[in-house]
């Protein structure tokens, strides 16, 4: 059973941290936008106590204090403090969507702590040379991120005026949400219950400098992408595969943003072999 505790950080902020327990290697889950940080039930149930799942609510979500101006690098610092509080020295990282980008940043900054990385449908850095960053995104997703690129005031106004629209999911995504990945319904609502701060700070972070270079990752990296993804197009994965030393890219042509997680179990097998 996943339990949580609140950790007080040196600057006085609260970070809500989750821990499944277990006697296996530790894997730190990085959640997407907008989610709270509870590790994914389909994977927790699949691994049982053979994996110790750790995670946290990023600042502004759930039980974690907002931290305006945070970057991918600053969240990586929070993650290592969470691991310290739980008595975990070395761990793998795994993330989906924007959480995949945070997982990569954590690995780039803490090679002494991170043993391996799985990033599914992760955004590449906004400054990525040679990548048409918005190409292939759904209109709703592109508008959300272009508003962030225009600055905090523009992003806040965009969120205040936004209405639900097509997120860019394909048929395979909707089918996945009808199955075990309907778990997302349990983590999206609570993430927004306290307002849009977490989402706004996430999107601002994606279009700002990461504060680290994914090209400096020394841990093994596995990248999972759906060829039909209209939320984070697979060209982001191709760019990361070229720039992360030794990265392996697994591209699933028929999958979208959610359904790519059907391949997370095989990714965990890959991760287990590199997390000793």
From TrEMBL:
<dbReference type="GO" id="GO:0016787">
    <property type="term" value="F:hydrolase activity"/>
</dbReference>
<dbReference type="InterPro" id="IPR050266">
    <property type="entry name" value="AB_hydrolase_sf"/>
</dbReference>
<dbReference type="InterPro" id="IPR029058">
    <property type="entry name" value="AB_hydrolase_fold"/>
</dbReference>
<keyword id="KW-0378">Hydrolase</keyword>
<feature type="domain" description="AB hydrolase-1">
    <location>
        <begin position="25"/>
        <end position="263"/>
    </location>
</feature>
<dbReference type="Pfam" id="PF00561">
    <property type="entry name" value="Abhydrolase_1"/>
</dbReference>
<dbReference type="InterPro" id="IPR000073">
    <property type="entry name" value="AB_hydrolase_1"/>
</dbReference>
<protein>
    <submittedName>
        <fullName>Alpha/beta hydrolase</fullName>
    </submittedName>
</protein>
């Amino acid at each position: 059973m996943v339990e949580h505790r609140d950790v007080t950080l040196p600057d006085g902020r609260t970070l809500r941290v989750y821990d499944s327990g277990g006697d296996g290697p530790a894997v730190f889950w990085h959640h997407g936008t907008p989610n709270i940080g509870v590790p994914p039930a389909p994977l927790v149930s699949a691994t049982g106590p053979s994996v110790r799942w750790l995670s946290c609510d990023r600042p502004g979500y759930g039980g974690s204090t907002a931290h305006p101006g945070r970057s991918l690098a600053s969240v990586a610092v929070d993650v290592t403090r969470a691991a310290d509080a739980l008595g975990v020295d070395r761990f793998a990282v795994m993330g989906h969507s924007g959480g995949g980008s945070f997982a990569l940043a954590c690995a780039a900054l803490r090679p002494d702590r991170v043993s391996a990385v799985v990033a599914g449908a992760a955004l590449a850095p906004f400054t990525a040379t040679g990548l048409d960053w918005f190409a292939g995104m759904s209109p709703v997703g592109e508008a959300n991120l272009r508003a962030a690129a225009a600055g905090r005031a523009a992003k806040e106004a965009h969120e205040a005026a936004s209405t639900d629209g097509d997120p860019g999911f394909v048929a395979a995504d909707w089918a996945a949400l009808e199955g075990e990945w309907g778990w997302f319904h349990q983590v999206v609502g609570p993430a927004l219950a306290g307002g849009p701060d977490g989402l706004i700070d996430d999107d601002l972070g994606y279009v700002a400098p990461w504060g680290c270079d994914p090209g400096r990752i020394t841990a093994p990296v596995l990248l999972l992408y759906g060829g039909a993804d209209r939320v984070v197009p697979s060209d982001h994965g191709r760019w990361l595969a070229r720039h992360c030393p030794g990265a392996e890219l697994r591209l699933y042509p028929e999958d979208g943003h959610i359904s790519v997680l059907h391949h997370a179990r095989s990714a965990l097998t890959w991760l287990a072999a590199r997390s000793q």
